[in-house]
């Protein structure tokens, strides 16, 4: 007999069929076999792969000369890789004093000394083997 950890799926046979699988079905499933002599239980972790989806970008206002951080968050399995663009030009870590730091589902684009030339529209692209998604973020000037 199979059942999931939240008991929303079960089967009384040796097979658990999950039609129309979605990311929400990922998790730990338990299989229990029993007879008159003993009971044995095994657990299986089910991973569901899906393409990235990104949170809407939040525009950021920064005063000239200050530090500015643009953030991009993606939900994906396998975990997404990130790319940043200004207009159609890809930005790389260390480019024009910009630092890109990826940590799990979050990517940060940091400007340590914002100049007038830094203001504008930036695009974050999250990519895995199943697809990609993007969001735009505007870095704009803010008065002190």
What would you say about this model in short?
The protein is mostly beta strands and about 140 residues long. It contains no helices and 13 strands. Strands 6-13-12-8-9 form a five-stranded mixed beta sheet, with no helix packed on it. Strands 2-1-3-4 form a four-stranded antiparallel beta sheet, with no helix packed on it.
Features:
144 residues; mainly beta; Immunoglobulin-like; 2 domains; five-stranded mixed β-sheet; four-stranded antiparallel β-sheet
Task: Please describe what this structure looks like.
- By secondary structure, the protein is mainly β.
- The protein has 2 domains: 2-46, no CATH class; 51-141, Sandwich (Immunoglobulin-like), CATH 2.60.40.
- The chain has no helices and 13 strands.
- The protein has strands spanning 2-4, 10-11, 27-34, 39-46, 50-54, 60-62, 68-77, 81-86, 89-91, 98-103, 106-111, 120-128, 131-141.
- The strands form 3 sheets. The protein has a 5-stranded mixed beta sheet with strand order 6-13-12-8-9, with no helix packed on it. A 4-stranded antiparallel beta sheet has the order 2-1-3-4, with no helix packed on it. A 4-stranded antiparallel beta sheet has the order 5-7-11-10, with no helix packed on it.
- The radius of gyration is 23 Å and the shape is rod-shaped.
